[in-house]
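Curious: why these numbers?
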Amino acid sequence: MPELSSAASAGFVSRALRHPSFAIGATLSALLLLAAVVSLGWSPYPPADIDIPAKLQPPSAAHWLGTDSLGRDVASQLLVGAQSAIVVGVVAVGIGLGAGLLLGCLAAAQRGWVEELVMRAADFTFAFPALLSAIMLGAIYGPGLLTGILAIGIFNIPVFARISRGAANAVWSREYVLAARAAGLGPWRITWAHVLPNIASVLIVQATISFATAILAEAALSYLGLGTQPPQPSWGRMLNEAQTLLFQAPMLAVYPGLAIALSVLGLNLMGDGLRDLLDPRLARRR
């Protein structure tokens, strides 16, 4: 059995390396993670340090990407800003995946009025996008990183609930599940033993794509002042601060915009690649 498992893992890695979308996406995502990890212990300058005499300097040996209107090092802000992007993505997707998976599996296992109630609740939640939820939460608790995380996480719950319910319903109609029911296994034991392992690949792909959406949503909320607050750097707030200097220092908007675009692109490509690699029908063709 260990030999079969290692052979399957080696086969997956081999196919992944040959898949262009996954390879490019994984590389870009690894760079995002590397930037966040490196910034935990090192950055060229403290990102919140203000040096007015050095404001709006072009790229140089001292400041690799130049400085902003307050003399802060742009490279340091980009590196530390990756932390906010990853924290929001991981926690918000975790909230959506955990709650959505529970609700989706509950709907598929119980069916009837339970399924109808869960799906109508999901439809109701869709009426409150992340931005609107952030505005409401910000009015109650004040803007901040936690507000953005909760808003994006709540929006992700119905997404995962719908996907979990649809994928679980397909598994519940399989012969081996019908045999397990005939053997007297309860719905939650069947869900744990048969449903979850068979819908895991779908959830992994959706989690990767939702991660990219969460990074984009966090940047939008920070741009509007509802997300990450000073002095913690954020790519969205860097864009907001750069908009008044587009003609004087246009690169101040290009750097965070490029960081957001590459991060979202990398995660989306990796999600597309995982979908191809984890789908048995597509895997046989490769």
In short: Residues 15-283 form a domain with the MetI-like fold fold (CATH 1.10.3720.10). Residues 71 and 90 are 31 Å apart (CA to CA). The mean pLDDT is 87.
